[in-house]
Amino acid sequence: MGADTAGRGVIRRAVAGQRRDVAVGAALGVCHQTGEALVPVLIGLIVDRAVVRPDGGALALWLVVLAVVYAMLSHGFRFGARAGERAAEQAAHQLRLDVVRRVLAPHGGAEAGRPPGALVNVATEDARRVGALNMALTLGIAAIVGVVAGAVLLLRASVPLGLLVLIGAPVLMALGHYLARPLEHRSEAEQERAAHASGVAADLVAGVRVLKGLRAESAAVARYRSTSQASREANVRAARAAALQTGLMLTLTGAFIALVALVGGRLVLSGSIGLGALVSAVGLALFLPGPIAVLAWVGAELAKARASAARIADVLAAPGETAGGTTEPAAPSAGELRLHGLGHAGLHGIDLTVRPGEHLGIVVTDTADAATLLHCLARRCDPDRGRVELDGTPVTELAPAALRSALLVAEHDAQLFDGTLLDNVTAAAPAGADPQPAMDAAAVDEVAATLPGGTSGRIGERGSSLSGGQRQRVALARALAADRSVLVVHDPTTAVDAATEARIATGIRRARTGRTTVLVTSSPALLAATDRVVLIDGGTITAEAPHEDLVRDHPVYRTAVLT
């Protein structure tokens, strides 16, 4: 499916989901535009029936009618605009939810090739632009009725003037659509550049401590300046296109109105219409630029919405990292994990069974092989050969969300979130579960003691107020609090001191009693607390025994964990 077709699908869903509010807003907008068109006609009638031939009673009556029409058009605009704005905001909100839901989908893939800032831009500004199309449709439908009503009323006053408007208005609308095409392309480029600039800014802010440590501030500033400059230039080009489109449409609209006034003036001079009709015709000629300008604005909004919709569709249609299964795992899961002849990248023929409730250590001499193993267990990729099974079912057959509910892979570089320490620990915990055992196991009480407010203290974006070891402990507590049947943890204590590491080793064992736990690490303290350890060297399993036996008998293992 092409980007343009997919983008149109996004627009259709955004509009169809809010059709009721759009319809209500359009109906009330029609009342407003119709009332606006009737005002000059009523003034013309007042001139003919109560001013040319003075009549106080008729004047009072028509002034009451005029007041009623004003009240109608005022309330029509007020409540119609409210319905249109509601439709726009609700559609934008739904699109934001769709984008976030896709980014967070268990099968992943939406973030591939897109920095976080770019995804934020899609979920905010692009969603807003597509949602705003509902407001544009509300006003556009009302504007079309306003043009038609003005033309009909002009036909009643003068057939030539009415025909002129009926022919000229569609021509102006077609020209507006044609002139909006360059704006669509430049708007898309503007959003791409803005998303890239947001991504660069997010990366720089996240790594500000590293940049300061490297004394690379000037290089970072130069990088952002270049990206921001490119975004500014794209924005200026889009603004120029919008200004050109608006200016040309205003010029064409002015020329059209001048032509209407010229024809009307000739008709008055020829005696074809009277004074009241002249007043009505002039009033209608002054009224018509409003709805025609709205139609030109609708064309510009449609161009922007199409560009943004294509970007949203690109994220929503992003292929997943893995193909999803449909089978639900046994509930509760026994926690048996098996690898049958697993081969991927540097791994070759890995056969391993982790028994339910076992506390297993895995030492991998090559960090790349460790990453590959974790990706296969987390199903961020499927192995080229062999398979991974959970309770006898291949993980490729399990629904991704269901797999995540039974098996959690807590990677070494797990990120924390802005909020309180407790919020981070309980982010994935079952509802109503007590997080204290997990915090005790990960020695988070020491972290809480350093924060104003304790566990209710805020830790800053990505845990910026914490040290590296403190962040590791909070991330480990979060993994433990999730209480999955199978937990795989990668190097959870590389930044903590030896005494704390020993405490954590005992704490993990205690917190995970009866639950399957796999520790992918080279930490002697953690490995000493396991039931057995598997050594993967050169991509294959070369040894399997308790930690003490491997330290005593296996030189490669001894080198891996003691040096």
TrEMBL record:
Keyword annotations: ATP-binding, Membrane, Nucleotide-binding, Transmembrane, Transmembrane helix
Pfam families associated with the record: ABC_membrane, ABC_tran
InterPro entries the record matches: ABC1_TM_dom, ABC1_TM_sf, ABC_transporter-like_ATP-bd, ABC_transporter-like_CS, P-loop_NTPase, Type_1_exporter
Main location: membrane
Transmembrane segments: 22-47, 59-77, 136-155, 161-180, 247-269, 275-298
Domain (ABC transporter) ranges: 310-563
The protein, known as: ABC transporter ATP-binding protein/permease
Native organism: Streptomyces cyaneofuscatus
